[in-house]
Amino acid sequence: MIELEGVPELIDPVMVAAFEGWNDAGDAASGAVAHLDREWKGEVFAALDAEDYYDFQVNRPTVWLDNGVRKITWPTTRLSVVRIGGTKPRDLVLVRGIEPSMRWRSFCNEILGFAHELGVEMVVILGALLGDTPHTRPVPVSGVTSDADLARTMDLEETKYEGPTGIVGILQEACTHAGVPAVSLWAAVPHYVSQPPNPKATLALLNRLEDLIDIRIPLGELPEDARAWQLGVDQLAAEDSEVAEYVQTLEEARDTADLPEASGDAIAREFERYLRRRDPAGPPAEPGDGSYLRDTSGGLPRPPKRKPDPEPGPSDDSPEPDENDTPPQA
After folding, report:
1. CA gap 49, 105 in Å, rounded
2. CA distances (Å), 313 to each of 211, 223, 319, 326, in order?
3. Are 188 and 325 in contact (CB under 8 A)?
4. Residue 24: which of 236, 228, 329 has the closest Cα?
5. pLDDT tier for residue 254 given thresholds of 50, 70 and 90
6. CA distance 330 to 322
7. What's the DSSP call for residue 318?
8. DSSP symbols for 172-222
9. pLDDT in tens, 161-170
10. What is the pLDDT of residues 228-250, one digit of tens each?
11. Positive or negative: CA dihedral 123, 126, 129, 135
């Protein structure tokens, strides 16, 4: 039985989860949850037993010195909670860890046990995949769900993907079978610049999360980091004519695909989202007053000679990640 003695009653809680590994191209998803935890000073209230879910030859523990005393940090998944202040306070339960090596069903059941005990209203799982998208354009973020009613009411895609999946897909299906509303947000990361970090993709995920659950996230230096990242990739691409030509091909394909969406209504909707996120009436939501928890715890690779053939992806028209780096989504 899960006991949460140090956690108070939460206000309209939403669980936001991300896992390092196959679901996390460019560390964009785990970076987004880390940003939330850092900006709102999250307090850890639980950690899953590393012995139950991780192969330590795959995800090795690390040794470090604390005032001369050697200590070990084990790979695991931790849960923290942050309170968003303002006129409409609410809580986020942040789940951040590494994709487990084994016992995925037990892992998801344990996460759902915490969600049930905390009264979580919805689970949002963040992921990132590699795709044929140019770094010079806005990062595509798709929102998908297995729940047809949720897809209709929240303007999401109902996933039709079939194929190998990662912990993001497994956890989403576990939520669906348990009757917990669940949404996955996927950012597409350019496959030719997949090295982490990717602050531009992290920023795109946070912006989409703002829209989805109607909160305002303090972005700190993330927008500037995203601009610096793009400038850096621009410079690297300019030094290689083959890469520059490939990027131009991706830009043309992206612009052609986006052309039908460049209608007056679409532009108006996007401008409304921008205004909601950056309402000048007040600053972004800040953490609640004081602590309320007891703590219990290189260069660009060369592009392919031709554009790769499309494979099945997270949705009917989304790119599929490379098998060795990031997963397809369920």
Report:
1. 15
2. 24, 28, 5, 11
3. no
4. 329
5. confident
6. 15
7. S
8. HHHHHHTT--EEEEEEEEEGGG-PSP-HHHHHHHHHHHHHHHT-----TTH
9. 889 999 999 9
10. 999 999 998 989 888 899 999 99
11. positive
Q: What is the pLDDT of residue 312?
A: 43
Q: Which residue has the tokens 């108070």?
A: 8
Residues with Cβ within 8 Å of residue 247, at least 6 apart in sequence: 134, 135, 136, 192, 237
Place of tokens 């790769």: 308
**Amino acid of residue 44:** V
Q: Quote the pTM value.
A: 0.79
8 A C-beta contact, residue 207 and residue 233: no
Distance between CA 141 and CA 179 in Å, rounded?
25
pLDDT at 133 over 70: yes
6 pLDDT more than 90 = no
d(CA 14, CA 119) in angstroms, rounded, equals 9
Structure tokens at 120: 């979580």
In the chain, how long is the greatest CA-to-CA distance? Answer: 63
Of 196, 207, 182, nearest to 229 by C-alpha is 196
- d(CA 238, CA 197) in angstroms, rounded, equals 21
Q: Are 47 and 101 in contact (CB under 8 A)?
A: no
Tokens of 303: 């592009």
Q: Within 10 A of 94 (CB to CB), how many other CB atoms are there?
A: 22
**Of 162, 202, 197, nearest in space to 185 by CA:** 202
Best CA proximity match to 93, nearest among 184, 210, 14: 14
Rounded to an integer, what distance in angstroms lies between the CA atom of residue 183 and that of residue 187?
Answer: 13
Angle CA 234–227–129, to nearest 5:
75
Q: Express the helix, strand and coil content of the chain in percent, nearest 5 each.
A: 35, 20, 45
CB 315 within 8 A of CB 157: yes
- Give the C-alpha separation, 147 to 77, whole Å: 26
Residue 192 and residue 301 in contact, taking contact as beta carbons nearer than 8 Å: yes
Q: What's the pLDDT tens digit per position in 17-57?
A: 999 999 999 999 999 999 999 999 998 999 999 999 999 99
* Cα-based distances in Å from 235 to 99, 136, 194, 241, 244: 34, 12, 16, 11, 10
